[in-house]
């Protein structure tokens, strides 16, 4: 059974694809009906990606008012990170018994979407594990770029901004782990170079020294 767009009430199908809102309305929308370019659909419909329509985002944002001329912004950011730390404690319980080398996880915390890659204890000598995370306010259209992730601990996100798409990466490269470093650098090279046949000469020893800082 086909779904219909909440805005125009027309069917959503292969010829006229759409997005499902993960907000309170739980409705479908054509990309054109919410002023999104068709090129944004693949990243917004990728596994682990959550998108919210403008109406749902406006309702959430209405409770978050910041005076740019005050210290409220700093207090708000600090409170957000405290909330994330508390929530991560419960999330760690969910992933404690997972034996995959890398655990992929996306969670909604407050008005932020948190994208994580956790290192399993079986893949590290550290008893407390490790990993990386990125938190993005959910009024942005975000795509989780799994195809850019490597064997290193890295999270790649595609964020649609006013003026274009921005790629954001959070990464931890263990000092001395040349396999992880080269895997990450190979993907990084594919992103920053205009032509695939171009190459950058990476110096592993120097890069390892930078990682220790």
TrEMBL record:
<keyword id="KW-0863">Zinc-finger</keyword>
<keyword id="KW-0479">Metal-binding</keyword>
<dbReference type="InterPro" id="IPR013083">
    <property type="entry name" value="Znf_RING/FYVE/PHD"/>
</dbReference>
<dbReference type="InterPro" id="IPR036691">
    <property type="entry name" value="Endo/exonu/phosph_ase_sf"/>
</dbReference>
<dbReference type="InterPro" id="IPR019786">
    <property type="entry name" value="Zinc_finger_PHD-type_CS"/>
</dbReference>
<dbReference type="InterPro" id="IPR019787">
    <property type="entry name" value="Znf_PHD-finger"/>
</dbReference>
<protein>
    <recommendedName>
        <fullName>PHD-type domain-containing protein</fullName>
    </recommendedName>
</protein>
<feature type="domain" description="PHD-type">
    <location>
        <begin position="2"/>
        <end position="59"/>
    </location>
</feature>
<dbReference type="InterPro" id="IPR011011">
    <property type="entry name" value="Znf_FYVE_PHD"/>
</dbReference>
<dbReference type="InterPro" id="IPR001965">
    <property type="entry name" value="Znf_PHD"/>
</dbReference>
<dbReference type="GO" id="GO:0008270">
    <property type="term" value="F:zinc ion binding"/>
</dbReference>
<keyword id="KW-0862">Zinc</keyword>
